[in-house]
Amino acid sequence: MTLADALVLLGFVALSGLVATSGVLFRPGPWYAGLRKPTWTPPNRAFPIVWSILYLLIALSGWLVWRAAGWQPVPFVLFGLQMALNFLWSWLFFGLRRPLWALADIGLLALAVALTALAFAPHSATAALLLVPYLAWVCVAALLNLSVWRLNRERGVFA
Q1: Membrane-crossing residues (predicted)?
Q2: Per the domain annotation, does 54 fall within a domain?
Q3: Which residues of the chain fall short of a pLDDT of 50?
Q4: For residues 13 and 56, what is the distance between their CA atoms, to the nearest angstrom?
Q5: Cβ burial, residue 4 (10 Å; 0-12/13-18/19+)
């Protein structure tokens, strides 16, 4: 690995870390704890563990495409879009307490992740496959988001 490769990998990791800060800036807190949730809701301690792994996979995925093909406009515009939508979800759900808006965002996020994987595939099959666990988790999160909204919409707990 060259110095340039290492620096770009570090850049992808830093970008993923920046997006991950949305979970720190907009923490679930007491409001979320008081919401009704489906019985299949993962334990709170699972979220930072899973997201840490996923953010590393996302960073590695982007780096593999960069390494294979350089800065390709379509794949990296999609990559940036899914990262922005990822950050936005925490703000909408936890910051603004708008689960319905967050549901729209996470639907777009799932689409953006799938399109990113498809755009990455011609450059690196491994990079595309590294996004599959991310897409799966986003789909689970979307179902959880929908369930929380449905279980609580009549209670007046949303801003």
Answers
A1: 6-26, 46-66, 72-93, 100-121, 127-146
A2: yes
A3: none
A4: 7
A5: exposed
Identify the residue whose tokens are 């720190």.
Answer: 24
pLDDT for 147: 97
Listed in sequence order, the residues at least 6 apart from 31 whose beta carbon sits closer than 8 Å to its beta carbon are: 94, 97, 157
CA distance 153 to 126: 41
| Total residues found in the chain within this entry | 159
E strands within the chain? Answer: none
Determine the Cα–Cα distance for residues 159 and 143; give it in Å rounded to an integer: 21
Please check whether residue 159 lies inside any domain of the structure.
Answer: no
77: domain range?
3-34+46-154
What is the distance between the alpha carbons of residues 125 and 111, in angstroms, rounded to a whole number?
A: 18
Number of structural domains, the chain? 1
- Burial class from Cβ neighbours inside 10 Å (0-12, 13-18, 19+) for residue 147 reads middle
pLDDT for 159 equals 64
- Does some domain include residue 41? no
Query: What is the structure's pLDDT at 101?
Result: 97
User: What's the CA gap between 89 and 84, in Å, rounded?
Assistant: 9
